[in-house]
Amino acid sequence: AFLDLSGPSEIKGVWKGSITLPCAYVPVEDLVQQTLTWSVVHDQSSGTIFRRDGSGDHILLSEYRDRVSVPKDATGNMSLLMLNLEISDRGTYTCQVTWRASNNSLIAKEITTKVEVVKVAATKPIIKAGELGLTVPAGASTSLTCEASGSPPISYHWFRSTLEGKTLFLSSGAKLAWDRLQPSDSGTYFCEAANR
């Protein structure tokens, strides 16, 4: 029986996005998977990120905690899913799998994938215009949501225009909500969206 791991030699991810590093094999009778490790070599450092063995899944590098996972029930699929990519995640990643044969000998295979993290062209936020004019009965609850597209992360600020032409800052966040509307809440509200 012949076993081989397959995956790309190079892969590009987008900063703050997610990426899957493929690593897969076709299961072979009489060969039982024992361990899986994902390790990385960065410019300055190296180490084991993830290890799966008889005792479960272990994430060994703190900077990858809560950011990496490997599918649990897909036999032969050892791909590493990485969330919230940082520029410092660029490097060479190695997937290594060991199997035990029926004669108790161990077989090990590995593949390496080079990862680049690119910043997408920065775009300033564009707010999707809301409907003008909203009539709501007193005592009701309502909310206004600010929707903007552009490079993440985007921050939001809600303001209210006063009769004197001043602007009053209300809250930060995409949503502005009222539990019980009062007649005094009537007025003009607007949202600002900003990013880096």
UniProtKB/TrEMBL annotation:
Top-level taxon in the UniProt lineage: Eukaryota
SMART domains in the cross-refs: IG, IGc2, IGv
GO biological process: negative regulation of complement activation, alternative pathway; negative regulation of interleukin-2 production; negative regulation of macrophage activation; negative regulation of T cell proliferation
Span of domain Ig-like: 18-112, 125-196
PANTHER family: V-SET AND IMMUNOGLOBULIN DOMAIN CONTAINING 4, V-SET AND IMMUNOGLOBULIN DOMAIN-CONTAINING PROTEIN 4
Species per Swiss-Prot/TrEMBL record: Sapayoa aenigma
Originating gene: Vsig4_0
InterPro entries: Ig-like_dom (IPR007110), Ig-like_dom_sf (IPR036179), Ig-like_fold (IPR013783), Ig_sub (IPR003599), Ig_sub2 (IPR003598), Ig_V-set (IPR013106), VSIG4 (IPR039939)
PROSITE patterns from the UniProt entry: IG_LIKE (PS50835)
Protein name: VSIG4 protein
GO molecular-function term, one example from the UniProt record: complement component C3b binding
Annotated Gene3D superfamilies: Immunoglobulins
Pfam families per record: Ig_3 (PF13927), V-set (PF07686)
